[in-house]
Structure formats: structure tokens, C-alpha cells
Amino acid sequence: MKLHYYPATDSLYIELRDAPGAETREVADGVNIDLDTEGYLIGIDIDNASIKLDLSTLETTALPTVDLKVA
Fold first, then answer.
1. pTM recorded for the entire structure
2. What is the C-alpha to C-alpha distance for residues 42 and 50, in angstroms, rounded to an integer?
3. Alpha carbon 71 to chain centroid distance?
């Protein structure tokens, strides 16, 4: 999983899987999900992220750190 923040547009993209998108659906105002060809969720795009989310902290809980890849 990767988090991509774009300050110029104040958008946050949460990449769940590295796969090509086939369809985008708006699930709430300014929140879109990307699906692959089989309908599996691959990403979430949030517009006006700094208004909708607290971007000052990032906390993780119970991640499987054995195979954790740090970039």
C-alpha cells in the first residue's frame, strides 16, 4: 500500500494494489474508488484531503511487519 499526497490539488491517493485501473466510481462527494477489470478495489482518491482528513499524523496498527517493505 502506498499513500500519495498531491499538495497542488490537495488530493490523497491510497494505492492498495499496483494494478491498472479499469473503472472509477464516485462513492461520496470527492471520493472515488478505482477498480481493476475483475472489480477488485485498487485505490481510493480523496479530493480536498486536508479538509476531510487529519493529515498531520499517520498511525498504523497491527501490520504484518515480517514482510514489511520500507521504501
1. 0.83
2. 22
3. 17
